[in-house]
Write a structure and sequence with these properties.
With about 190 residues, the chain is an alpha+beta fold. The protein has two domains: about 50 residues, no CATH class; about 130 residues, Arc Repressor Mutant, subunit A. Helix content is about 45%, strand content about 15%. The chain has a three-stranded mixed sheet with strand order 1-3-2. The chain has a three-stranded antiparallel sheet with strand order 4-6-5, with helices on one face. It comes from bioreactor metagenome. Pfam families: Hydrolase_2 (PF07486). InterPro entries: Cell_wall_hydrolase_SleB (IPR011105), SleB_dom1 (IPR042047).
Length: about 190
């Protein structure tokens, strides 16, 4: 009888293990199908926490306020390419800031919910032409991506950035900015609306 008390603890430990979120999600949904209120609440909570759960092998996980972004090797490579193309010649902090903007956009409801979709979104990054970005990132760019994944965001959770001295986008120049911060040659900001 005393061993029966351990079964719920083992079940919960298994259920909420960070290594098996998909199995936990399906187990919870199945376990609570008899009570739709509990099932809906648990499903909604898990859906809010599982962003970009790819079919591919996950190599990194970004955790911000209990929202998880599961990153594949392809995601990391795309991020490093954007960091290289958008912040070549900028200080390391500026490179981390560019990577942070990508992660912030994935978390924001106003943007797509995967790294690939954020990067390939039309007109999102000037270095992406026709859905392609053909640069070879440096080790420093990858280090900046990993620093952003660790949660180091020097931008105050910015969603946009540009170089005011060379920008050709009138929207960036004219939009009302909130929480702006200059890092290197770039200005990082959120919009006020």
């Amino acid at each position: 009888m005393k061993y029966l008390k351990a079964i719920p603890i083992l079940f919960l430990t298994f259920l909420f293990s960070a290594e098996i979120p998909v199995l936990a999600y399906s187990t919870i949904s199945t376990a609570f199908n008899t009570n739709s209120t509990i099932s809906t609440d648990v499903s909604r909570e898990l859906d809010n926490n599982l962003i970009n759960m790819p079919e591919e092998n996950v190599v990194e996980v970004f955790n911000h306020n209990e929202n998880l972004i599961y990153l594949t090797e392809d995601d990391l490579n795309l991020m490093a390419k954007i960091v290289y193309a958008e912040s070549k010649g900028e200080p390391f902090e500026g490179k981390v800031a560019v990577a942070s903007v990508i992660l912030n956009r994935v978390l924001s409801p106003g943007f797509p919910d995967s790294v690939r979709e954020v990067i390939l979104q039309p007109n999102a990054f000037s270095c992406v032409i026709n859905g392609e970005i053909s640069v070879v990132p440096t080790e420093e760019c990858y280090n900046a991506v990993y620093e952003a994944i660790k949660g180091n965001d020097p931008t105050n959770e910015a969603l946009f950035f540009y170089n005011p001295s060379i920008a050709t986008c009138s929207w960036m120049q004219g939009v009302e900015k909130a929480d702006s911060k200059s890092i290197g040659q770039h200005l990082f900001f959120k919009t006020s609306y």
